[in-house]
Request: fold
Amino acid sequence: MKTFKLGGVHPPENKFSAESAIRVLDLPKQVSIPLAQNLGAPAKPVVNKGDEVKAGQLIAKGEAFISANVHASVSGKVFKIDEVMDQSGYRRPAVIINVEGDEWEGSIDKKDILKKDISLSKEEIIGKIKEAGIVGLGGATFPSHVKLMVPEGKKAEVLIINGVECEPYLTSDHRLMLEKAEEIMIGTSILMKGLGVEKAYIGIENNKPDAIEKLGQLCKQYEGIEVYGLKVKYPQGGEKQLIKALTGREVPSGKLPIEVGCVVNNVGTAFAVYEAVQKNKPLFERIVTVTGKNLNEKANFLVRVGTPVSDLIKAVGDLPEDTGKVVSGGPMMGKALNNVDVPVVKGTSGILLFDEKHASRVEMRTCIRCAKCIHVCPMGLEPILLAQYSEKQRWEDAEKGRIMDCIECGSCQYTCPSGRPLLDYIRLGKQKVGQLIRNRGNK
Reply:
């Protein structure tokens, strides 16, 4: 059975919302659309207070090489451009729009008719994806058009579509594969053309047999696309782990997937590419899972970017009384929110509600040198050592220990019997070491 070989854990899957069909969430009264929604430079606003906007209209332009355009997700009037709290707890610039309806830009094709023919050239596809502000929807939010611009001297050989969704609880990708399978296949074909490759592999974990069956049948109609079921093991959806599982190739330390001829995109990204290229629709809404053990209703919503997280929670019956923590993303890599009025962004895959019992961390004790964190690390690192380097501010030692290779999957912290905050320290170390590397490059 295809999988990655090194490390990995098996947390409970808890895919409670897997059977919940995608529902359209009602429009909020106001949206706050952050200008920084990609792994790169923030976009610069091109609208002003008082401007009338339509859904799909450009409101901020990504001018840096690694950046992404931002579009209005609703129609209405720009209330103001101000700083709002983001999901990390920091105040960031955003365009705040009072919702006055749902009028879309006239160029967007709203007809529910499948468009299979791909008429655009490779260059036009990349341009269209850039215009639409598409970023990786698996969590990293790297601008998708940049991934298709293969650096000189490198060659793309295979496109990999990530349908793994290995994080417990999350089911947004699963539902998308079931309900928008053909659009995903066309989006994959578009990405293949934009990348200039003839092969594409779609990887899906074996806990989604219905999605494997559906896409497996469809791929027979699309040249060059193959669907593979993968062993259920976290973090199977990490791009380096997925490349290893599907191709047997290993991405070298400090390098990107293109080094081994691969480019990885999420299934949600493939769907967004279909909508952008075939329907002229920018990325201004996405599927978000709202779930938790104590919720009576678990759901997958189609949500406009900028919608307050509190609106999603109200739509499933509001916060249970014993809620101890609200997490954006999955339980392994997601981050706790300190305010549920923060906006949904392009990278929001799920909102998880934990009760007091499951929200609390276990008491931290002395490391017992069991080496479990080392055995489960899918990157072959020594998490306890990297955490200690970070704690002691030994940044150069952390860099030599390959701290930048950490994919922040949380397997080490999950398996630690002493409750050590390994990932917390490693994340801090990565920030500091990354800063050192950038400063070195600027000299």
In short: The radius of gyration is 21 Å. The chain has a mean pLDDT of 96. DSSP finds 14 helices and 17 strands in the chain.
